Amino acid sequence: MDQIGNVLGGMTGSAGGGDIVGAISGLVGGDGGLQGLVGQLSQGGLGDIVGSWVGKGPNQPVEPAALRSALGEEKVSQLAAKSGLPIEALLPMLAGALPAIIDTITPHGQVPSGDATAGLDIGGLLEGLSSAASAGPSSPLAALGGLLGGPKG
Predict the structure, then answer these.
(1) How many folded domains does the chain comprise?
(2) Residue 152 falls inside a structural domain
(3) What is the value of pTM for the model shown?
(4) Among 114, 116, 146, 138, which residue's Cα sits nearest to residue 53?
(5) Where are the extended beta strands (E) located within 54-138?
(6) Would 130 be classed as within a structural domain?
(7) Among the four residues 1, 64, 97, 114, which has the most C-beta atoms within 10 Å?
(8) Rounded to whole angstroms, how far apart are CA atoms 111 and 127?
(9) Can you tell me the distance from the alpha carbon of 5 to that of 32, in angstroms, rounded to the nearest whole number?
(10) Terminal CA-to-CA distance of the chain, rounded, Å?
(11) Does residue 24 contact residue 125 with C-beta atoms inside 8 Å?
């Protein structure tokens, strides 16, 4: 198990919490795979934003409230339960992480078919993103850095 897995595994065992890596992996590689997620977000009004994550240009940011609306309350609640985080903490992390994750999975500007997360180290990617915590406590990923054992802002 890699370092992030150890940190998150320890969190799960000690706090009875969940698994942020598993929650994000399930979102990106779950039912319908990445194609399903991109479709759901696009139908939820985030087509241009998600298109920037898949495309070869800069990634547009997404507001946590817009992400919540596009994902729907049921899926957001499931993600919160799996991650062990309150929705108010989870959504800013997802809003900060999803653009980079989807961008990484789609380096050629196309959504792959099948399991797009096969062979992708979501935990390692999140660990790299957690360095954004050094941007200060206002960074949407600052809390993610704390969860992954980095500095808490």
Answers:
(1) 1
(2) no
(3) 0.70
(4) 116
(5) none
(6) yes
(7) 97
(8) 23
(9) 25
(10) 26
(11) no
